[in-house]
Design brief:
Blueprint lengths: L1 H22 L1 H5 L4 H7 L3 H21 L4 H14 L1 H10 L9 H21 L2
Length: 125
């Protein structure tokens, strides 16, 4: 029961963040490293929208695909690992976003990512 609640809370948080990627694209653009645009040949807005779509899809999968729970957990953990360079970039460049407007907060955000990875894996075991 605890893991089910944790999975639903994770899905809710992912879905909410995914929607924010569509409504506050500008705020997320500063997190995208320049090398990501060169590597993917996509502009920053497209990367932000794609990551938002991925978050919404992962959120839906965590809830709607109970037989694929472990795979969805692994995919979610992989997503959290994949966006970590953006968090690192934001900290190193000192760029602010809502809630991450100090070096201390941006640095603290780096430690949240491993917790999110662990949460995704634990809640879907």
């Amino acid at each position: 029961m605890t893991r089910t609640i944790a999975r639903w809370l994770l899905a809710l948080a992912l879905g909410a963040m995914g929607v924010l990627h569509f409504t506050q694209t500008r705020g997320f653009r500063v997190v995208v490293p320049d090398w990501a645009t060169r590597l993917t040949r996509l502009d920053k807005d497209t990367i932000v929208l794609a990551s938002g779509a991925a978050e919404v899809a992962l959120a839906a999968g965590l809830v709607a695909l109970p037989r694929e729970r472990r795979r969805m957990g692994a995919a979610t953990a992989g997503f959290f690992a994949a966006v970590f360079p953006g968090n690192w970039h934001q900290w190193r460049t000192g760029r602010s976003t809502p809630g991450l407007d100090t070096d201390r907060r941006r640095f603290g955000r780096l430690f949240l990512q491993p917790l999110l990875i662990a949460w995704a894996l634990w809640a879907t075991r």
